[in-house]
Amino acid sequence: MEAMEIDSQNILQRKQATYSSLDDPFEIHKETYRGQQYSQIYFARLHLMRTLLYSLAPNWKPHLPVCTILELEKDRECIIVGTLYKHMKLKPCILDEYSKERSVTPLVKPHNFMHPDDKLVLEDDSGRVKLSGSVLLPSIYVTGVVVALLGKETDAGDFLVQDVLEAGLPPQIEHPLKPREDKHVVFVSGLSVGGSTSNPLQFQLLIDHITGHLGDEKEQGIAAEIVHVVLAGNSVEFPRGLLNGQNLASKDQSRLSEPIKELDIFLTQVAASLPLDIMPGSDDPANFSLPQQPLNRCLFPGSSAYNTFRSCTNPHCFEVDNIRLLGTSGQNIDDLEKYSEAKDKLEFMERTLRWRHLAPTTPNTLGCYPFVDRDPFFIDSCPHVYFVGNQDKYKTDLVKGSEGQLVRLICIPKFCDTGVAVVLNLRNLECHTLSFGTEFSS
Fold first, then answer.
1. Closest among 11, 42, 127, 114 to 80, alpha carbons compared
2. What is the β-pairing status of strands 159-165 and 226-232?
3. pTM of the predicted model, to two decimals?
4. Which of 51, 171, 185, 239 has the most C-beta neighbours closer than 10 Å?
5. CB of 434 within 8 A of CB of 419?
6. Which alpha helices (H) appear in 127-249, and where do they start and end?
C-alpha cells in the first residue's frame, strides 16, 4: 500500500510538457503505387532545390548568369544547378550479387565503397555533364545531392568547377524563451529485445531510473524532470534463420512473438508514467523502405492502452515545449557512411542539414517509397535538435548556421551494446548520458 502511495506521488509531482507531432509528411495515406518509377522523386527534389538555389545565386555570384546544362558554352563562366550522380567503381551491382550467390567463393561486403577513381556528374532536365577540378570532392558528395556550381565548359566537354553553393541550413523557427526549470527528454536506441546481446536487467534498471523507482530522493527528483522518452529504432531482434520464406511451425511462431511480448511488458511500465514515442528501425517488424510507417499498435496491447504511448514514423519530427526535434533510426547516416567519407557520424549529420535533405542517397542506395509529386525528406525548417539512433557510440555537437540557427546533433548509441541512454535538457539543449552496467564480480 505504501509503495502505491509513493508511486502516485511521483506521478503527481512529475513535470509536464506540451507535445505536437509533425510526422504528417512521412505518413503514407493516399499514395497509391501504380508502377511509377523512382525518377519522379528526383524530379520533385530537383524542382524544390533548384527554386531555392536560384534564389540564393544572386547573393552568391551576382554578376554571373544561371543556365541549364544544354546552354553551356565553352570557356564562358556561368552557374548551373542540378543533381549530382557519383560513378563508383566499387558500388555493388545487384546482378553481380545474384551471380556470386551461386558461386563457390563467398561475397565479401566491404564497409565502404569509395575508390580514388570515383567521378561526379551533374544532371538536370536538359542533360548531364562530367565535372572536373579539385573543388568538388567525390569523397564528400553522394548521388542525389542538389547543388549550384560555378565554372565553365572545357575543350574536353567537362565542366570545370570553380566554386560550390549548397542550400545551407534551412530557416529555423524562433527559439522559445528559455524556461527557468529543467525538463528532460530521454533517447534510447537499439534495445534489440530478444537478441543475443540484449540484457533485460540493464533495460529494467533504465526503466526503474526514469520512472523514479530507483535511487534516493535526489535521483527521484531528477527523474521527475523527465517529460518524454523516445525509442529510436531496433527495439526487437528476431531469432536468425526463422524468417527464411518457409511456413513457420507453431513453436517457431511463438518464438517470433516472444521478443514483442517482452518489449510490451517493458514499455507498459514506461507508458504508465511517461509519454513515450517508439520509432521503427531496420530490424523491427515494419516496412523496409523509408519513410517507415508506425509499428502497428496491436503489437503492444499493454502499452498502447495508455494515451501516453505513441507509435511514430521513421523519420520522426515533433515538438516538445516548442522545441523542434527531428530524428531517424540511423539508416540515412549509415548509408552515407558506405558511399562517402567523413571524420565522424556528426559530420555526416551536419552535411544532411546543409544539403537540406535527410536521406540524399534515397532511392539510389537506400530504399524509399516512390513518391510522385513530393520528396518528404526535404528539410524545410531547421530543427533545434537532430538525433540519429543505432550508432556505435555516443557523440554530440552544436552546429551554427549563417542566419543564427543553432542545432544540437546527437548520436544515440545502441543500448544493447553500450547500456547507454542519452538525456537532453530542453532548457539549454545540453546533453548527458545515463550508463547502466550489470557486471558482477566474484
1. 127
2. unpaired
3. 0.90
4. 185
5. no
6. 200-210, 217-223
Q: Which residue has the higher pLDDT, 112 or 167?
A: 167
Give CA angle at 223 (220, 226), nearest 5°. 160
The pLDDT tens digits of the residues spanning 159-174 come to 999 999 999 999 998 8
d(CA 274, CA 297): 17
Query: Quick check: 440 pLDDT over 50?
Result: no
Average pLDDT over residues 126-136: 93
Question: Measured between alpha carbons, how far is 83 from 357 in angstroms, rounded to an integer?
Answer: 12
Looking at the DSSP bridge assignments, the partners of residue 407 are 399
Which DSSP state fits 143?
A: T
Cβ proximity of 327 and 387 under 8 Å: yes
Burial 192-206 (b: 16+ CB within 10 A, else e): bbbbeebbeebbbbb
Q: Are the C-beta atoms of residues 259 and 237 closer than 8 Å to each other?
A: yes
Q: Is the pLDDT of residue 117 over 60?
A: yes
10 near 220, Cβ under 8 Å? yes
Across-strand partners of 327?
316, 387
Q: What is the mean pLDDT of the chain?
A: 88
Q: Which amino acid is at 292?
A: Q
**DSSP of 251-289:** HHHHHHHHHHHHHHHHHHHHHTTS-EEEE--TTSSS-SS
Cβ proximity of 142 and 340 under 8 Å = yes
Angle among Cα 39, 45, 49 to the nearest 5 degrees reads: 145
Task: Yes or no: say if 386 and 327 are a contact pair by the CB < 8 Å rule.
Answer: yes
Query: How far is the C-alpha of 367 from the C-alpha of 359, rounded, in Å?
Result: 10
CA atoms of 385 and 261, how far apart (whole Å): 32
Report pLDDT digits (tens) over 218-249: 778 888 899 999 999 999 988 765 655 556 56
Query: E-assigned strands of 42-115?
Result: 78-87
